[in-house]
Design goal:
A six-stranded parallel β-sheet has the order 3-4-2-1-5-6, sandwiched between helices. Helices cover about 45% and strands about 15% of the residues. It has a domain of about 180 residues: 3-Layer(aba) Sandwich (Undecaprenyl pyrophosphate synthetase), CATH 3.40.1180. The protein starts with 13 loop residues before the first helix and ends in an 8-residue tail after the last helix. The protein is α/β, with parallel strands linked by helices and about 270 residues long. Helix 6 links the parallel strand 3 and strand 4. It has nine helices and six strands.
Length: about 270
């Protein structure tokens, strides 16, 4: 008489569990997408893409590979925004504080920006959807090759206005406000403006985002709950959403959850 192992229960294999899990996720994602489509979208979505380095460390890969995976997630994000017809997207790609990182990491990032911006100029999706691409920030802080790539991307898309895609490079919110103050001071000194003429609208007109509406939603990944010098002036009445997911690991489902959370909030604007 042999001791045969008991038969496995149906559905007990890891493969079966994975299939069921994927099916449930897909169903949840579809229902959430259909629900979101019935409600108003944020007109301007701003993203703080945080967590590339921690993702790389957790995955046991080099930091530059973590940044490359973050770039791939950004490519997917653009598709998700197009699906929902979100017309304005601003992403925080490189802060002024990030410029203090190691030479090797910065070189890898600059190579990434250089290639990505030049690719934008010939990206069929960008031209098909008429996406205007612009870079905001202090370009003088960036290498010449990246400045040239910015010019190529902006020139190739300058005639478009259906969608606006803004990349913050060498950007700092405080620096932006200081530059606006300096510009206003020069106007006053030249006699083109009186000090009492300066108001919030005048300040807004001297920012990098002068022709954009303020962001409706600022979404940050990585579990950090702060805006880290990003769009300080413009975010006065923005809704904030923080996700524990590291940026390269962001999924469409988590993105949809952020949009749905925004839709369920009542925006009072101080009322």
């Amino acid at each position: 008489m042999t001791d045969d192992p008991p038969p496995k229960k149906a559905g007990s294999s890891p493969y079966f569990s994975q299939v069921v899990g994927d099916a449930l996720r897909d169903l949840t994602e579809k229902r959430l997408f259909d629900l979101i489509r019935q409600e108003p979208m944020p007109r301007h979505l701003a993203i703080i893409m945080d967590g590339n380095r921690r993702f790389a460390q957790a995955a046991g890969i080099e930091v530059k590979e973590g940044h490359a995976k973050g770039r791939d997630t950004l490519e997917e994000l653009l598709d998700w925004c197009l699906e929902l017809d979100i017309r304005i997207l601003t992403v925080y790609a490189l802060s002024t504080e990030n410029l203090t990182r190691s030479k090797d990491e910065l070189e890898a990032l600059m190579d990434l920006f250089d290639r990505a911006l030049r690719q934008i100029a010939v990206d069929e999706r960008v031209h098909r959807h008429q996406i205007r691409v612009r870079v905001i920030g202090n370009r003088a802080l960036l290498p010449t090759r990246v400045q040239e790539a910015i010019g190529i991307a902006e020139k190739a898309t300058e005639g478009y206005s259906k969608y606006l895609y803004n990349v913050a490079l060498g950007y700092g919110g405080r620096d932006e406000i200081v530059e606006a103050i300096r510009a206003l001071a020069r106007e006053v000194k030249a006699g083109r403006m009186r000090p009492e003429d300066i108001d919030s609208e005048e300040v807004s007109r001297h920012l990098y985002t002068k022709d954009l509406p303020d962001p409706d939603l600022i979404f940050r990944t990585s579990g950090e709950e702060r805006i880290s010098n990003f769009l300080l002036w413009q975010s006065a009445y923005s809704e904030l959403y923080f996700s524990d997911v590291l940026w390269p690991g962001l999924t469409r489902l988590e993105f949809l959850r952020a949009i749905r959370a925004y839709q369920l909030r009542r925006r009072r604007y101080g009322e």
